[in-house]
Amino acid sequence: MAWIQLRIHTHRDNADLLGDLLMDQGSLSITYEDGQDEPIFEPKLGETPLWQDTVMIALFDAGTDLAPTIEFLESMPFLGKGFNHKIEQVEDKDWIREWMDSFHPIQFGSRLWICPSWREIPDPTAVNVILDPGLAFGTGTHPTTALCLEWLDSLDLSNQEVIDFGCGSGILAIAAIKLGAKKVTGVDIDYQAIDASKANAERNDVVDKLALYLPENQPANLQADVLVANILAGPLKELAPLIAEKVKIGGKLALSGLLQEQAQEVSDFYSQWFIMDPVSNKEDWSRLTGIRK
Predict the structure, then answer these.
(1) 51 vs 39, which has greater pLDDT?
(2) Among 36, 151, 264, 284, which lies 20 to 30 A Cα-Cα from 2?
(3) Which residue range is the domain that position 151 belongs to?
(4) Are 143 and 77 contained in the same domain?
């Protein structure tokens, strides 16, 4: 089956209304894209911010006559006659296969591989984490996740206790276990992340070594030899005293989810509790590491 898509540039304030209008006109789906390469940083909890110049892509059956839809949209005051749009034909594809083909096994450091379940494991003798893109953030493809995985791979985690603060998909927690940690605790504010981490731990046969908690349920006086937190700059600063007290004296810390321009400020802040290392960067993102004083 073939498709036709209508691409429209609009202001973010009009995006919700325009999406509703397009669905009323028979659109089968709506996709949002950035129209001007405008970054969005650190949305507040529960918010789904859009770009100031948002491109909306409405997908229709190929047999749809879009002329009445265009005429109707031109009558909307926030668009007007001759509004910025483009109509394109879209070839039929096996979209599930297209999506699956875009994910490949990735190596981090010298020992660690993250492998989608449908791909052949490149090195059966390596430390392999089986993880599929899905419910929660963290498949290894983002630079911040990669920086944390590379750091974990560089450590000797034998007999170490680890905390994954903001565990998401559980990728860092599971990697730590497979790299030798005797026990890992994952904490996240989202119960869906807890569910995702548990499911991924079961898939990797490490569920017996992973304890998962919402913040309000975590054990009192929880501490570990190693703590990794791949979240955002704002929460990292707000939660710094809490994070610091969870690391044993002499323990190791890694923080990511930081843009390069945010890294030094956060590093300076954490130097109250940690001897901080030089910043490590990948693309536009940074990782901070340190030793608890």
Answers:
(1) 51
(2) 36
(3) 138-292
(4) no
143 shares a domain with 282: yes
Residue 1 or residue 31, greater confidence: 31
Tens-digit pLDDT profile for residues 257-290 = 999 999 999 999 999 999 999 999 998 899 999 9
Same domain, 144 and 282: yes
18 is a domain residue: yes
Q: Is 255 left (phi over 0), alpha (psi -120 to 50) or beta?
A: beta
Beta-carbon contacts of 171 under 8 Å, excluding residues fewer than 6 positions away, are: 114, 129, 131, 138, 139, 140, 145, 149, 200
Q: Does the pLDDT of residue 82 top 70, yes or no? A: yes
CB 76 within 8 Å of CB 21: yes
Q: Which two tokens stand for residue 270?
A: 């954490």
What is the pLDDT of the chain when averaged over all its residues?
87
In angstroms, rounded to a whole number, what is the distance separating the alpha carbons of residues 216 and 138? Answer: 23
Q: What is the pTM of this model?
A: 0.70
Number of domains in the chain: 2
Q: State phi, psi for 24 to the nearest 5 degrees.
A: -65, -25
What CATH code is carried by the domain that includes residue 67? Answer: 3.30.70.120
Can you give the pLDDT at residue 232?
85
List beta partners, residue 112. Answer: 108, 127
Distances (CA, A) of 142 to 80, 222, 238, 256, 282: 39, 28, 23, 11, 10
Confirm if 178 and 149 have CB atoms less than 8 A apart: no
pLDDT band at 137 (very low <50, low <70, confident <90, very high): very low
Please check whether residue 66 is in contact with residue 12, taking contact to mean a CB–CB distance below 8 angstroms: no
